Amino acid sequence: MCGGLQYLSMFVTGVAYVITTATCMRAIQKSNCYHREGSGASCAYGNTFYMLLFGSSQIFFSQIPAFHKMEWLSTLATIMSFFYASIGIGLGAAKVAANGWIKGSISGVPTHTTPQKVWTVFQALGDIAFAYPYSLILIEIQDTLKSTPPESKTMKRASMFAILITTFFYLLCGGFGYAAFGDLTPGNLLTGFGFYEPYWLVDFANACVVVHLIGGYQVYSQPIFAFVEKFFAEKFPKSGFINNAYPIRVPLVPEFGITLFRICFRTAYVLATMGMALLFPYFNQILALLGALNFWPLAIYFPVEMYIVQKKIDRWTRRWVFLKGFSIACLFVSVVALVGCIEGLVTAKLG
């Protein structure tokens, strides 16, 4: 169950990456248009072309085995993350200073009816839960570590620093964004066009996001590729279609072998994520859905259960009751967030 949900979440993450990349690429084009013609210009562009462009590049990158384990890729992604997050924080802080006062309210975005408010809150819970998607690939990351020092110690330190740094950037981006725009805060500060100038800086930030997501898509896709290909290779060991490898040489990449099954399956996978993105091209709703799917089972339930077993905590003790209560409370949050996300997707699709 855990593995199946993990792979489903990775697939949805791939869909979200297709949407986000297309949104950022479209934002660059719109930013240049607004700079030339003014912020009141129509400057309407679609996502379809950019989704197809991103999908085409991923069809190529997906054929490279263990693409996500290339050291330079992780370094590049880290640098890109730092750049676009820092730019978003800087632009938000500058907007607050230019406004001269802090926008927003405790009650949040107003709605016409109480049910609309409830659905909006539920969907927002999913967006917040999206802060936990790294839990999907912890095992895959740990598998790449050397045994000295022990993987558990390395992962504990890495997780602690990652959570602290990520929380720092999330809070600053969210805080400054809401302080700058209040109830009109866009779902994505860099693509919602709260900022029009300096256009070149907004373009650069969106370009950093695109570069990051090109590699990030592979981080979440390669574990699925490895699982499916290993499963079929073991089930059909004599199949040439599945097991016969042909050497391929690509510049800057070590020589690797490719099979006909790999070409077909990985291409079909990329096309599937691209097709879902074309069918539901809704940035906020997809991210919230991903957060709702991941949050309780992968970030709360299984870690809590493993901790109880590891520490040998007896049933009905104070610690056991606290941990179980915490897990149940998070389950409630995950369920209501999932319901709100589904309602948001249906409304967006039909509306």
Automatic annotation (TrEMBL):
Keyword Transmembrane present in the record's keywords: the answer is: yes
Assigned GO CC terms? membrane
A biological process from GO: amino acid transport
Q: Could you list the residue ranges forming a coiled coil in this record?
A: none
Q: Which InterPro entries match?
A: AA_transpt_TM
Q: Which residues form the Amino acid transporter transmembrane domain?
A: 2-345
User: Transmembrane stretches, by residue range?
Assistant: 7-28, 48-67, 79-98, 160-179, 199-220, 259-280, 286-309, 321-346
Q: Where in the cell is it found?
A: Membrane
- Give the domain of life: Eukaryota
Pfam family of this protein, just one? Aa_trans
Keyword annotations from UniProtKB, A to Z: Amino-acid transport, Membrane, Transmembrane, Transmembrane helix, Transport
What name does this protein carry? Amino acid transporter transmembrane domain-containing protein
